[in-house]
């Protein structure tokens, strides 16, 4: 009987070349999250930034900021994140 771990995710175990569920590993594997920046901090890159609330959810407020310019003000605990180019 062959048992292997998936080299990429480590979430699947193969028994006799058939996938089986692995033990619970704490949820879906996620990549690193994009960096967040404090209001008033210099923008690390030019682009569109989205405001995130204290829970990390987008608020729907956005701003275009040039590299080196200060990020807009935001309520206490809120931060800014550079949006990906689509």
Task: Explain what the structure shows.
The chain has strands spanning 3-5, 12-15, 18-21, 47-52, 58-65, 79-82. With 86 residues, it is mainly beta. The chain has a domain at 34-86. Strands 1-2-3 form a 3-stranded antiparallel β-sheet, with no helix packed on it. Strands 5-4-6 form a 3-stranded antiparallel β-sheet, with no helix packed on it. The chain is globular and about 35 Å long.
Q: Which terms would index this structure?
A:
3-stranded antiparallel beta sheet, 6 strands
Can you tell me the overall shape? globular
The beta-strand count equals 6
User: Biggest sheet, strands in spatial order?
Assistant: 1-2-3
Instruction: Please mark out the parts with pLDDT under 50 across 5 or more consecutive residues, or reply none.
Output: 8-14
Gyration radius (Cα, Å) is 20 Å
Task: Briefly characterize the structure.
The protein has 86 residues and is an all-beta fold. The chain has no helices and six strands.
What does the secondary structure layout of this molecule look like, with pairings?
Layout: E1 3-5, E2 12-15, E3 18-21, E4 47-52, E5 58-65, E6 79-82
Antiparallel strand pairs: 1-2, 2-3, 4-5, 4-6
């Amino acid at each position: 009987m062959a048992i292997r771990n998936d080299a990429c995710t480590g979430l699947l175990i193969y028994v006799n070349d058939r996938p089986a569920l692995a033990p619970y590993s704490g949820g879906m594997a996620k990549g690193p999250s994009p960096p967040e920046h404090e209001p008033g901090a210099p923008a690390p890159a030019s682009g569109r930034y989205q405001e995130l609330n204290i829970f990390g959810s987008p608020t729907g407020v956005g701003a275009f900021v040039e590299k080196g310019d200060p990020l807009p003000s935001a309520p206490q605990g809120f931060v800014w994140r550079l949006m990906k180019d689509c």
